[in-house]
Amino acid sequence: MYGPPPLAERIRQVEDRLHVISALATALEDPVAVLQLVLDSADEDGANAALRDHFGFDIVQARAVADLQFRQTSGRQRAAVLQERELHLSLLTDLRQAQAQQQAVAAHYDARAATYDASGMHRDLAALVAERAPDLGDGLVVDVATGTGLVLRAIATRRPEARLVGVDLSPGMLAVARTALPRAQFVQADAAALPVAGESVDLMTCVTALHLLAEPELAFDEWARVLRPGGRLVTATFGADTGGPARPDLPQGFARRHEDYRTPEQVRRAFRDHWFALESHTEHELQGDRLLVCVLRRVG
Questions:
Q1: How far is CA 49 from CA 70, 104, 272, in A?
Q2: I want to staple 268 with a disulfide (CB 3.0 to 4.6 A). Which of 111, 112, 222, 278 is the partner?
């Protein structure tokens, strides 16, 4: 069984609920008219048609209004509906901001895909992360924000029997990854909604991407869902005064939250409420960038 639905599906669900809520709020402005229309109708279909004609509802809204139970005063019911609407509007704003972050990140890395592997820092960092991969046998490795698959390529060299899955938002980066490492499976997916069964993963990696996650709290919960107890998560983040905007000539428009992950203590705090314990860390300087590599264990 997989985890939460992708972000686009959650947005659709909230929009659908707001569509119904708007009709309920309108109906509760004139509950007497609603009751009279329903009582004057011969059957359910007639009531739905009458509500559509009178209020301009569509069939989904009409059915929801026809199902209203006037168990308390209409004023109290309408207040509750309006409160629900405000909550859903706030949630929709947050979800759309997350979606905008994902779309901007994907556009930026699509534009970098053809030249990304030229970065010596990223190649060297991938090798460092691969060194921390335990002896997995044919265990499952999932690399989140895999990009061009540099980390999985490095792991494949050291752990040839491991099953490899890479997840990324950028179709351009994934196209490069599929060409470079045909034996791995590469999937365009949200880091917070992985197409992976629960407790099936032995090792996860997320390299220089924590700062780009649109919904980090949900992502960390999702990683805990798919990792088996005792499985490892290896992250790499930028240290102090590094990790500034890369390639300002390319599409931008997204947030970089480096400040949440610059030190081992910050990484430990970020993951401690999501069933992860910091096991070890090392610090490195590569091509002028300071990098922090952390190994976390899935507890519980």
A1: 20, 44, 54
A2: 278
Quote the DSSP letter at residue 135: -
Q: Is residue 1 part of a domain?
A: no
Quick one: DSSP state of residue 6?
P
CATH code where residue 33 lies: 1.10.268.10
Question: For a pLDDT cut of 90, what percent of the chain falls above it?
Answer: 86
Residue 253, Cβ density class (10 Å: 0-12 exposed, 13-18 middle, ≥19 buried): exposed
DSSP letter at 164 equals E
Q: Could you list the residue range(s) of the whole structural domain that residue 194 is in?
A: 114-298
User: What is the rounded CA–CA span in Å between residue 112 and residue 5?
Assistant: 28
The closest alpha carbon to 40, from 69, 74, 66, 70, belongs to 66
Residue located via tokens 């030190």: 263
pLDDT, tens only, 212-261: 999 999 999 999 999 999 999 999 999 987 666 667 777 788 999 999 99
pTM, to two decimals: 0.88
Maximal C-alpha separation, the chain: 78
Q: Which residues pair with 286 in a beta bridge?
A: 289
Which token pair is 210? 């924590």
Both 106 and 118 in one domain: the answer is no
Query: Taking each helix axis from N to C terminus, what angle separates 150-158 and 120-131, rounded to the nearest 10 degrees?
Result: 40
Question: Which has more confidence, 247 or 66?
Answer: 66
